[in-house]
Automatic annotation (TrEMBL):
GO terms for molecular function: copper ion binding; oxidoreductase activity. Keywords: Glycoprotein, Signal. Coiled coil: none annotated. This is L-ascorbate oxidase homolog. The keyword Glycoprotein applies. Pfam families: Cu-oxidase, Cu-oxidase_2, Cu-oxidase_3. Residues 1-24 form the signal peptide.
Length: 538
């Protein structure tokens, strides 16, 4: 089986290289990954991890705007597996999104080759396993998209870059955690925090005095927001999920589930070691972990307690979130300034209000959106849509607004028209903080506040210089509103980034539809697409 997979992989790569030479396409990068189980001890307790090429976390993806990435993934686990790409927009190509609504899982002993293009994107992101609570075992890694050399960047080239993948972690195997959820219970509080796969004092980041470094920080955790800070050092925010920001200075940053930030840090302090600190936010028990910022000419090691940070203060975090602004004069992935897109002047064609709830259904804990708790169909929704397989999903199976009706199980899909412009309001009546992600799109975070959203809330929207991103927080008993161009045809996952809530139903799909059957709007089904469910044999 492996030999056949390799033969077809090399044949595919030969064809890709031949076509790229003939057509003068954007450059290609090639990755071959083997996904296996392996023993890991991130919190000092042996557990079963999921490794990529023997690594935990997995290998970093390096890319430049518009490059094509060929990622051949071999599944050497004993269960189906998929990888998704948090923040990578898959322009016209939801076939490569790597979630069950778009892709059949890679069976054990088989491989699948993802063909991605990081079209018109820059920034800091990550990839992760999207099925079966595998994210609690690893198989995540950093994903970096650099600007093209011809595009100016609004800061000097740093002396170096560091990727920081931080988040909460459980010492139990993912199979044990999954069994708890399948049994109808919620998970206990996490056992600790990790930075790049290691626990307390597990990493050292070495810098030279007087030089400036870029830290790309992502919250890859399962259930909690985090706060990130570096003892004695200021952080200059320069990029949020592909948007160059106004360069405000922060002593610490709240990074909510699924979010990514880039900051510049200058090693301008006396030469010694300093704490890098990550702690949980909005939790009754505060978890903390540390790494070390090491000056290469350090005269002393780190000493004393790590610097404290915010804990449960929501207002502090809300004000920080409102301080994030788009740099209107800076270039994005293209040479035109980011401010040339006047998002606040476009007429809204579709308002969607999504309210989270935590119902008990059939005696088990579930999570829902507008009363619908998502259940996967027997066939990926994208395949069912393409082959016109009836009975897999129904458009409008979830309302566009909360109805207050009793919770129910549903394969939830909202219909939307290509080139529309949506206002999406995430409403959180619960006491816990939420975090939401939309695949295939970036959106403009126009407003957030406490209490209930009403049409009058639009009077508070920032229609000039808010940031554009793909993952946004919603504070307890609060709302967050975004404007989203529906500019990417496909079947796109909208999900909670709290992985317990996502697994137990707090997600849905957005079908962005174009009646024109054209490559201009959407790429055709890949020739190597896996078939499963009712699509087998088609």
């Amino acid at each position: 089986m492996r030999g056949i997979g390799l033969f077809w992989s090399f044949t595919f790569l030969f064809l890709v290289l031949s076509l790229s030479c003939i057509n003068g396409e954007d450059p290609y990068r090639f990755y071959t990954w083997n996904v296996t189980y392996g023993d890991i001890w991130p919190l000092g307790v042996k557990q079963q991890g999921i490794l990529i090429n023997g690594q935990f976390p997995g290998p970093q993806i390096e890319s430049v705007t518009n490059e094509n990435l060929i990622i051949n993934v071999f599944n050497s686990l004993d269960e189906p597996f998929l990888i998704s790409w948090n923040g990578i927009q898959q322009r016209r190509n939801s076939w490569q999104d790597g979630v069950y609504g778009t892709n059949c899982p890679i069976p054990p002993g088989r491989n699948f080759t993802y063909v991605l293009q990081v079209k018109d994107q820059i920034g800091s992101y990550f990839y992760f396993p999207s099925l079966a609570f595998h994210k609690a075992a690893g198989a995540f890694g950093g994903f970096k998209i650099q600007s093209r050399s011809i595009i100016p960047v609004p800061f000097a080239t740093p002396a170096g870059e560091f990727t920081v993948l931080a988040g909460d972690w459980y010492s139990k195997n993912h199979t044990d955690l999954r069994a708890i959820l399948d049994g109808g219970s919620d998970l206990p509080f996490p056992d600790g925090l990790l930075i790049n796969g290691r626990g307390l004092n597990g990493n050292t980041f070495t810098v030279e005095q007087g030089k400036t470094y870029r830290f790309r920080i992502s919250n890859v955790g399962l259930t909690t927001a985090i706060n990130f800070r570096i003892q004695g050092h200021k952080m200059l925010l320069v990029e949020v999920e592909g948007t160059h920001t106004l360069q405000n200075t922060y002593e610490s940053l709240d990074i909510h589930l699924g979010q990514s930030y880039s900051v510049l840090v200058t090693a301008d302090q006396p030469p010694q070691d300093y704490y890098i600190v990550v702690s949980t936010r909005f939790t009754s028990q505060i978890l903390t972990t540390t790494s070390t910022l090491h000056y290469s000419n350090a005269a002393a090691s780190v000493s004393g307690p790590p610097p404290g940070g915010p804990t449960i203060q929501t207002d502090w975090s809300l004000e920080q979130a409102r301080s994030l602004r788009r740099n209107l004069t800076a270039n994005g992935p293209r040479p035109n300034p980011q401010g040339s897109y006047h998002y606040g002047l476009i007429n809204v064609t579709h308002t969607i209000r999504l309210q989270s709830t935590a119902p008990i259904i059939n005696g088990k804990q579930r999570y829902a959106v507008n009363s619908a708790s998502f259940i996967p169909a027997d066939t990926p929704l994208k395949l069912a849509d393409y082959y016109k397989i009836s009975g897999v999903f129904s458009l409008g199976s979830i309302p566009d607004y909360p109805t207050g009706s009793g919770a129910y199980l549903q394969t939830s899909v909202i219909a939307a028209d290509f080139r529309g412009y949506a206002e999406v309001v995430f409403e959180n009546p619960e006491d816990t903080e939420q975090s939401w992600h939309v695949d295939g799109h970036n959106f403009f975070v126009v407003g957030m506040d406490g209490g209930e959203w009403t049409p009058a809330s639009r009077l508070t929207y920032n229609l000039r210089d808010t940031i554009s991103r793909c993952t946004v927080q919603v504070y307890p008993k609060s709302w967050t509103a975004v404007y989203m161009p529906l500019d990417n045809v496909g079947m796109w996952n909208i999900r909670s980034e709290n992985w317990v809530r996502q697994y137990l139903g707090q997600q849905l799909y957005l079908r962005v539809y174009s009646p024109v059957n054209s490559w201009r709007d959407e790429y055709p089904i890949p020739s190597n697409a896996l078939k499963c469910g009712r699509a087998v044999g088609l």
